[in-house]
Predict the 3D structure of the following.
Amino acid sequence: MKNSPVYQFMLVFLLSLNFGIVFFDRQALNALMPFVQPELQLSDTQIGLLAGGLSFSWAIAAFFVGKLSDSLGKRKLLLIASTVAFSLCSFLSGIATSFVFLFAARLLMGAAEGGVMPISHAMVASEVDPKRRGLAQGVAQNLGSNLLGSFLAPVVLVAFATVFSWREAFYLAAVPGLLSAGLIWLTLREPDMTPAHSEEDAGDKLGLMDAMKVRNMWICVVVGVLLVAHFVITWAFMPNYLVQVKGMDPTTMSWVMGALGIAAAIYSIVISGLSDMIGRKPVMVILPFLSVVGPLAAMYFTGSATMLAAIFFVGWAVNGIFPIFMATIPSETFDQRHHATVLGLAMGSCEVLGGVFGPVVAGALNDIAGKDSFLWLMMGLAVVSGFIAMGLKETAPAVLARRGGKAAHA
C-alpha cells in the first residue's frame, strides 16, 4: 500500500525528532567535558575510552536489534522500546562519581540507543517514495540529530551547567525521549514487510558475510569506519581543544561547536537532496577532501571565533553524506526484507571500528605527542575515505534512469 505524502512527511519528521533526542543524549558528555574532566580527573585517553565505549555498545545493538526487527517484523515496537530504554538510562551519567561509573553508564546508553537508527532507516526505505529516499533518509538521520544533538546540546547544556552543574544538565537530557516514544506509539504504524521483488531475488535469509561480498556494501562499511572515527574524534576532543589550546571560554566554545550542528542540519537536506539528482558517488568522493579545512583552521587560524565557526561550517559538509553510506546506498542495493539487517551492518561496523578505536587512538596520541595530534589523524581519515569512495557503483534512481539502467537488488 502506497502511503500518502502527509504520512510520509509525518514519519520522517517523527523519526528525525526521535534520533535528534538520541543524539542530544549522546553529545551531552562531549559538550560537558570541560566541566566533567577536572572534577573526575580524566586523562585524554580516558575521554577517548568513554566515547569509544558508547560506540561499542551502540554498534552491538545496531547489529542485533536491526536483525531482530527484520526477523520479528516489529520495527515500530522495537523502536519505542529502544527510545524508552535510553531515556531511562540517560540520567545515570549525571550521578557518576568516577571514570568506571561513567564508563558503565555510557555503555548502557549506547546499548539502548544503537538500534534506533537502523530501524528508523528501514522504516523510511519501505514507507517513503524511492524518488525521495535520499532526501528522506538524510533528514531522518541528520536534521534532528544535528539541530538537537550537535547544536542545542552544547549551547543549552553548557549554559545549564554554568548556572547549576554538569550533573543537573545530564538530568535535563533524560526527559524528551519518553515524550517522543509516546508520539511514535500514537501516530505511526508498523511498516509493510511484503517483499518488493519477486522470486528472482536472493532468499529470505541474508548473512552478514554474504552482504559484505557486495561491492557497495563493503565500500560503505570501510568509508563509514573512517568517517565515523572522524566524527567521534571531533566531538570527543574539539571542545577541550578550543578551551585549553585556543583559549576560548566554555560559552564561546559551545557556540562554535554548535555551528557544526547547524551546518549538518542544513547539509542533511542539501547534500542528500543533491545526491538524489546528481548521484550518490560524486558527493561521497568530493566532500571528505573538503573536510580537511576544519582541522587545519583549528590549528592555524588565528582570527575571530565567528570566522573559525564559518570555516568549520564549510568543512562539516561531509556530515551530509553520513546517511548516504549508512543507509541510502545499502537500502538501494538490497531488497527491503533485508534493510534493517544491512543498515545495522553498515552502522554497527562504523561504530564498532571507527567509533570505538578512533577516539581511543586519538586520545592516546594526544597524551603522547601533543594536543593537536587528533587533528592530523582526522585529516588522514578523511582523505583516505575520499579515495576509497571512488570505487562505488551508482545507485541513485534518477541517475540510473538517465543512464537507462536500474539498481540490482541483492
Notes: The chain has one domain: 5-193+203-403. Residues 73 and 328 are 20 Å apart (CA to CA). Residues 5-193+203-403 form a domain with the Growth Hormone; Chain: A; fold (CATH 1.20.1250.20).
